């Protein structure tokens, strides 16, 4: 199993480099591991994670007494998948839903990373599955953000709660949560403004939004998803660190994975931040969103 579309760049970049390393392979020596480390770092895996992978592979190779190219190749693929799954598998990588009543998913992230698009894609996904979906346009700060969400609503035939620009985001959320409860919606996606420039304000705004949600639905929000742009590499990692200080992030939506030849940021997020990547964006279209599956991803890189 692998992602068939959207990983072409990473496959011809990161994946091909690992394949080239293996193609030129003669023996597992210091040179081999050094080149592997370099390749991983170039692919945005991050220094620490690259070193850890390399170190663990050295031990694995020794343990298995692996000498053949195919054994080394298997060991690398297994290590990349293991690295990801070490902290939890299956369900852990999926969006978490309420057992009863509306599920509330809060989206955070800086401008331009693909928050609104990801919400639109999710609206399409769950609407197609017959779920009753509601969107809340609580990014009242960025010009055009409300209109953009309203358009996604039209495109996916999903209702959107919106107020004029510069309205209090918490007021939008209040109305949306009330409506979701009163009209038996299954899922409410909330778009927020991610202004990292002013962390104190952002924290206050997100706290207020969460208070409003909790008052109506005590166990909500069921997810706080941070959207990160895969093409920004290590910068995405820094954003994740900053947002984690401001709010309790429960998972990552990694967008524009189709736009990078690196793709190793997936591993860095998991290994350094201990946050699960729950969704990956593999294009601009409505259907270009997948639940993240480490095996599909890693196999997609190499095939
Ligand atoms: P927001 O400011 O975080 O809400 O970002 P937007 O949702 O407006 O997205 C910014 C741009 O990124 C838009 O042009 C989207 O079409 C594009 N985009 C979002 N997700 C993806 C993706 O997974 N792949 C690609 N190639 N483009 C994406």
TrEMBL record:
<feature type="binding site">
    <location>
        <begin position="255"/>
        <end position="258"/>
    </location>
    <ligand>
        <name>GTP</name>
    </ligand>
</feature>
<feature type="binding site">
    <location>
        <begin position="109"/>
        <end position="116"/>
    </location>
    <ligand>
        <name>GTP</name>
    </ligand>
</feature>
<feature type="binding site">
    <location>
        <begin position="191"/>
        <end position="195"/>
    </location>
    <ligand>
        <name>GTP</name>
    </ligand>
</feature>
<keyword id="KW-0675">Receptor</keyword>
<keyword id="KW-1003">Cell membrane</keyword>
<comment type="subunit">
    <text>Part of the signal recognition particle protein translocation system, which is composed of SRP and FtsY.</text>
</comment>
<keyword id="KW-0547">Nucleotide-binding</keyword>
<keyword id="KW-0963">Cytoplasm</keyword>
<keyword id="KW-0342">GTP-binding</keyword>
<dbReference type="GO" id="GO:0006614">
    <property type="term" value="P:SRP-dependent cotranslational protein targeting to membrane"/>
</dbReference>
<dbReference type="GO" id="GO:0005886">
    <property type="term" value="C:plasma membrane"/>
</dbReference>
<dbReference type="GO" id="GO:0005047">
    <property type="term" value="F:signal recognition particle binding"/>
</dbReference>
<dbReference type="GO" id="GO:0003924">
    <property type="term" value="F:GTPase activity"/>
</dbReference>
<dbReference type="GO" id="GO:0005737">
    <property type="term" value="C:cytoplasm"/>
</dbReference>
<dbReference type="GO" id="GO:0005525">
    <property type="term" value="F:GTP binding"/>
</dbReference>
<protein>
    <recommendedName>
        <fullName>Signal recognition particle receptor FtsY</fullName>
        <ecNumber>3.6.5.4</ecNumber>
    </recommendedName>
</protein>
<keyword id="KW-0472">Membrane</keyword>
<comment type="similarity">
    <text>Belongs to the GTP-binding SRP family. FtsY subfamily.</text>
</comment>
<comment type="function">
    <text>Involved in targeting and insertion of nascent membrane proteins into the cytoplasmic membrane. Acts as a receptor for the complex formed by the signal recognition particle (SRP) and the ribosome-nascent chain (RNC).</text>
</comment>
<feature type="domain" description="SRP54-type proteins GTP-binding">
    <location>
        <begin position="276"/>
        <end position="289"/>
    </location>
</feature>
<keyword id="KW-0378">Hydrolase</keyword>
